[in-house]
Amino acid sequence: MRQPLVAGNWKMHGTLATNQRLLEALKAGLAGLAGVQVAVCVPFPYLAQAGQALAGTGIGWGAQTLSEHDTGAYTGEVSGPMLRDFGCRYVIVGHSERRSLFGERDPQVAAKFVAAQRAGLTPILCVGETLAEREAGATEAVVASQLDAVIAAAGAQALAQAVVAYEPVWAIGTGRTATPSQAQAVHEFIRARLATAGGAALAGGVAILYGGSVKAANAGELFRQPDVDGGLIGGASLVAEDFIAICRAAAAKGA
Ligand code: PEP
Fold first, then answer.
1. Mean pLDDT over all residues of the chain?
2. Pocket lining for ligand 1, CB < 6 angstroms
3. How far does residue 186's CA lie from ligand 1's centre (Å)?
4. Superfamily assignment of 5-236 in CATH?
5. Domain extent listing, the chain
6. Whose CA is nearest to atom 2 of ligand 1?
7. DSSP readout, the chain?
8. Whose CA is nearest to atom 1 of ligand 1?
């Protein structure tokens, strides 16, 4: 059975002081919670802080992107082996903000996915359509091509050591959440695509998270959908009580 996962994406938020309060609150609030894996993906400078605070707890930590290169003259970049040095378990790749604001296209996202796995990290691969693409009826085509780019570069079986996050771009940070049935429909499509590429056993084992304005109030209904295996959480991951409530909603599914 797939264990639910809830991963927080802190984006470019936080200070040493606010992070410490948040991390301590998460440790206290999530201690002993079974049936869900929890992780926070923090800004690079705070990886050491997250590692120190979370070592020995069940809460994992990770980064929000990485270089597709392992080492070299790439000013400003951070590599997979560096993230491993800081104890990261996860790294987000292909987040829509990386795609839209930093020009990351499918081939680069696929190269980052491969680099993450080369370093022993679990990539959280984000896919999702814009509002215009949804309204044009292109949701499945967009998600399929984003997924297929990674399958072509890494091989379908590589997805067994990865997490997929369906994040409709129109729902990220907008307060507008996909309905549970909209989310389920795309998750089911992604799982079917994985089955076609790599077989039913592979597809059945891959956690597919939903992301896009998940809150404590809507998490339960989203996570009850059969193919929704937890969430990638932006804004609500910065508020301890909200994030904890979302983790509890996922744990209820995993129990
Ligand atoms: C995200 O950044 O991945 C995200 C889902 O953000 P939010 O929860 O704020 O919509």
1. 97
2. 9, 167, 172-173, 211-214, 232-236
3. 17
4. Aldolase class I (3.20.20.70)
5. 5-236
6. 234
7. -PPPEEEEE--S---HHHHHHHHHHHHHHHTT--S-EEEEE--GGGHHHHHHHHTTSSEEEEES---SSSSSS-TT---HHHHHHTT--EEEES-HHHHHHS---HHHHHHHHHHHHHTT-EEEEEE---HHHHHTT-HHHHHHHHHHHHHHHH-GGGGGG-EEEE--GGGTTSS-PPPHHHHHHHHHHHHHHHHHHH-HHHHHH-EEEEESS--HHHHHHHHTSTT--EEEESGGGGSHHHHHHHHHHHHHHH-
8. 234
